[in-house]
């Protein structure tokens, strides 16, 4: 019996405040790495609501996606998984400092673009820096580009 290949669909929040970006430091199989607040699309969920949920779960910040920054396809070098990432920018809401972060997330941290670039050897994927660069280049697509039925 053959297996059916499918990419892992993920969402990522590009949260910018005062020239700094919200990242998370998380435990991975490769050690402590940085990532945007990001995660997998769950059954029945829209991409936009998944992004807002992941941002809250990983940072305790409410986030409202307002634009699509880009869609990124990245096959891990190990060759076992291909990620299809939908990255969103948006508006930052309230912070709940008493909220527990997702398992494996050590902390949320604000970084300047220079700090994001300087830590690239500790990024979970090359998509982190690329997403920031695309955001800084002004890439924004309307959310109605994405059609969700259900």
Automatic annotation (TrEMBL):
UniProt xrefs under Gene3D superfamilies: Nucleoside Triphosphate Pyrophosphohydrolase
Matching Pfam families: NUDIX (PF00293)
SUPFAM superfamilies found in the cross-reference section: Nudix
GO molecular function: nucleoside diphosphate phosphatase activity; ribonucleoside triphosphate phosphatase activity; thiamine diphosphate phosphatase activity
Top-rank EC class of the record's enzyme: hydrolase
Listed cofactors: Mg(2+)
Keywords annotated in UniProt: Hydrolase, Magnesium
Known EC number: 3.6.1.-
Protein family according to the UniProt entry: Belongs to the Nudix hydrolase family. NudJ subfamily.
Subunit structure: Monomer.
Protein known as: Phosphatase NudJ
